[in-house]
């Protein structure tokens, strides 16, 4: 399947293909398959979604750091729109939680799973220790990966649509708004690369991208196993 995310001459594509095996494990994880065919145990999804709510709180902090680290006002505005996008993505989670009789207070009162803490703090650390390109690289497996997954599931005829309890999730991440946000993220990296990329940085950037991708795999595992 050709996707809007795969332009071979982008830095994003270079970093993704440098960790192709990990990327495949992320995008084709058993958890994702269970969402696609509706067979994922509901308790795994509930655990995942509550953890993801906590994830998005820290993830929006990391995106907020990209406002601080931006090179110019235009990039600050774009980063600010991304923060707003994440804070509205959280509404999906709350809608599901309300159906399960949970309030926002119940969700934010949950302990944070280790896989969750590892991922969000890793991204924040890359952003604090590095520059804006390191930070945007650490953020990208999250924002682009979910769009790639959602886009594939929406367009795959094998995906169960009717009666799939996870269809709303698929629609959120495969929907136009999220996909456009992901394309903006790829563009943002391209734009930063003009002034900040040199070949000497490639290895370290690929490492950051790969670690974030592996942490995404760990996040699905955490959901599936309902672990803390
Ligand atoms: C763990 C994780 N990765 C990516 C996204 C997409 O924003 C999300 N909601 N959660």
UniProtKB/TrEMBL annotation:
Return the broad EC class.
hydrolase
One Pfam family linked to the record: TENA_THI-4
Q: What's a BP term from Gene Ontology annotated to this protein?
A: thiamine biosynthetic process
InterPro entries (UniProt xref): Haem_Oase-like_multi-hlx (IPR016084), Thiaminase-2/PQQC (IPR004305), Thiaminase_II (IPR027574), Thiamine_Salvage_TenA (IPR050967)
Residue span, Thiaminase-2/PQQC domain: 23-225
Metabolic or biological pathway, per its Swiss-Prot or TrEMBL entry: Cofactor biosynthesis; thiamine diphosphate biosynthesis
Q: Which family does it belong to?
A: Belongs to the TenA family.
Function (record text): Catalyzes an amino-pyrimidine hydrolysis reaction at the C5' of the pyrimidine moiety of thiamine compounds, a reaction that is part of a thiamine salvage pathway.
- What is the protein name given in its UniProt record? Aminopyrimidine aminohydrolase
- The scientific name of the source species is Endozoicomonas numazuensis
């Amino acid at each position: 399947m050709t996707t809007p995310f795969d332009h071979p001459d982008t830095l994003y594509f270079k970093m993704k293909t440098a960790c192709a095996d990990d990327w495949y494990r992320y995008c084709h994880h058993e958890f994702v398959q269970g969402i696609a065919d509706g067979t994922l145990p509901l308790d795994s999804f509930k655990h995942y979604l509550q953890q993801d709510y906590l994830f998005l709180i820290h993830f929006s902090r990391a995106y907020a750091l990209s406002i601080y680290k931006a090179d110019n006002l235009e990039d600050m505005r774009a980063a600010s729109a991304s923060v707003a996008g994440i804070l509205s993505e959280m509404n999906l989670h709350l809608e599901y939680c309300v159906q399960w009789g949970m309030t926002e207070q119940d969700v934010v009162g949950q302990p944070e799973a280790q896989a969750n803490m590892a991922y969000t703090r890793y991204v924040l650390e890359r952003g604090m220790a590095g520059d804006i390109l390191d930070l945007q690289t650490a953020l990208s497996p999250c924002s682009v990966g979910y769009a790639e997954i959602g886009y594939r599931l929406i367009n795959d005829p094998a995906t169960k649509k009717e009666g799939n309890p996870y269809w709303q999730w698929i629609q959120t991440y495969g929907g136009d708004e999220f996909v456009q946000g992901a394309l903006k993220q790829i563009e943002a990296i391209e734009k930063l690369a003009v002034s900040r990329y040199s070949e000497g940085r490639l290895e370290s950037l690929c490492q950051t991208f790969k670690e974030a991708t592996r942490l995404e795999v760990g996040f699905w595992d955490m959901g599936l196993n309902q672990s803390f």
